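Q: I have 115 residues here and want to know how they pack in 3D. Can you give me a structure?
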Amino acid sequence: MTDSPAPGHRVVLDAGGRAPVLPAAREAYLAALDEGWADPRRLHTEGRRARALLDGAREAVAALVGARTEEVDLAPSHTAALHGAVLTVARVSAPRRTTTRPPTTNSKNGRVAAA
């Protein structure tokens, strides 16, 4: 059985708006709560298990959207995700600034030094 909606079925993508959760997503979430509750940055057994679950989720999302795994960033909240997205867009779209230094002179002989 697939969790894909039937043609013409409405799909709600706004999780902040309390969209219904697909059964497979709910099962995966509950399993992650049971098995991956620890901080994935920690080196103890539970932390390594949480890291493995997080990495698996990142790989699954990457495969689903046709991206490389390292291009997928799972944020801890929608606020953090939006903040990161805005910063990324601002960084990419900011005009490149080139700085030119004025020539410097050698105080001993008054000649212009190579930069």
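Q: Anything worth noting?
A: The chain has a mean pLDDT of 79. The helical segments are 23-35, 45-65, 78-93.
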